[in-house]
Structure formats: structure tokens, C-alpha cells
Amino acid sequence: MKKFEAAKLTKQQNYKLLSGSVIPRPIAFVTSQDEKGMLNAAPFSFFNVVNSAPPMIMLSTTRTAGKRKDTSLNIEATEAFVVHITDEDTVEQINRTAAPIARSLNELERTDLTCVDSDVVSVPGIEQAKIRLECKLDRIIPLGDKQEGSDLIIGEVVMFHIDDTVYIEPHKIDSKALGAVSRLAGNNYANLGQSFIIERPTE
Predict the structure, then answer these.
(1) Residues 99-108: tens digit of each pLDDT
(2) CA distances in angstroms from 180 to 8, 83, 90, listed in the order given
(3) CA atoms of 74 and 161, how far apart (whole Å)
(4) Three-state DSSP class for 133?
(5) What Cα–Cα distance (Å) separates residue 57 from each residue in 2, 46, 54, 83, 140?
(6) pTM of the predicted model over 0.90
């Protein structure tokens, strides 16, 4: 078995080991906007649920040479964003928004995705997403150092939008119909594949 002391590895080496080990990871497609209303859209695979009462999610955005992601700057400024669950129908369009383009440009113009107004927050969502979560910022927690660390963003979900094709009464999601896509390492992605059931112990 290989052993690696994390403190002796570079940022890229640690990232490769983490992103290849912690799999599969759900992909949050996040829309945000700055104080002037300029829209930004970007995917993040450091993403998950962190609380249910109130409902809260987290995503982590990296810093490179001290430069923060536009998404993080926008969320800090407006305290609002929308998270979409990436699925088999949207993943290729979403991937087009991952390029590191100028802050003044709208990534959605590279796609065929269309915007739709949100109900609670000011940031629009994406119409084609089967699930979208309107979020208000709870807190941003800086991780690591200012140059190469990350911003851990925790948001409270204030409105769920669930497409009829994936909703099951009462308040359940049809995972097969959703067709969520996950991130592996590098350029590799995966769908849900075969599922199985293991009963949870009751005592």
C-alpha cells in the first residue's frame, strides 16, 4: 500500500488524490449574480447536503494565487444563489460553462440553457434543470490560506423546484427519472448505474 503525507504534497497532488478517492461527487450547477445584475453560472463538485432543519447545502470554491471564484464573490455580495442538480440531459451544456472566462462575460451565452425567474431570491434559475434550489447565504467560511485555500459556502434552501417527472408523493425524488450525473476524477463522469437496497439496523 502506498502512503503519502499530505503536508509533503503539492496542492495539485492532494487534489488528485482527493478527487479520485472521494467518488462519486454530485455536481452543483450554480447561478449567481453580482450587485449590478451580471449573471454567472458554474459547476462545482465539492458539493453536498449539510442540514435538514433548516435545509442547508454546502459548496466549496477554490482560490488560485489569491483570486476567488466569481461565484463566491457574487454570493458574498448578494447573499443569494440557485443550485441545480446536474443530470444526463444537462451535463454537456453545463460543462460549457466551466471555462475560466472573464468576470464580465455570461457563461450561459455559451449554452442553449434558458433562464427562469426565481420565486424568493433575486437570482434566476435554469429552466431545463429537473431540480433547482433557491438559496440564501448562511455563511462563508475561509479554508486554508488566502492564496491557495477555498471558500466553504453554506446556503439555506428557501424554495425547492422539483419537476413533475421526478417527484413522488409524499416529498420524494425518483432517482432513476432524475438521472443525476456525478463527477469522478479528471474529465471522467458517471451516472447512477445499478442501485441496491441494504436495510438499516433498527437496534
Answers:
(1) 877 777 788 8
(2) 36, 13, 9
(3) 22
(4) strand
(5) 34, 11, 10, 9, 12
(6) yes
Could you tell me which residues are beta bridge partners of residue 182?
26, 190
Question: Is the Cβ–Cβ distance between 137 and 30 less than 8 Å?
Answer: no
Cα–Cα distance between 32 and 39 in angstroms, integer? 6
Which residues are within 8 A (CB) of 13 and not within 5 positions of it... i.e. 6 or more apart?
4
Is the distance from CB of 30 to CB of 83 less than 8 angstroms?
yes
Question: What is the C-alpha separation between 76 and 189, in angstroms, rounded?
Answer: 30
Contacts of 203 (CB under 8 A, 6+ apart): none
Q: How many CA atoms lie within 13 A of 196 on its CB side?
A: 1
Which amino acid is it at 146? Answer: K
- Grid cell digits, residue 100: 475560466
Predicted pLDDT of residue 136:
98
CB 101 within 8 A of CB 90: no
| Close Cβ partners of 121 (under 8 Å, ≥ 6 residues apart) | 80, 81, 82, 134, 135, 136, 158, 159
- CB neighbours (10 Å) of residue 139? 11
Q: Name the β-bridge partners of 85.
A: 28
Helix ranges restricted to H, the chain? 11-21, 70-78, 91-95, 175-178
192-201 confidence digits (pLDDT tens): 988 899 999 9
> What is the reported pLDDT for 70?
93
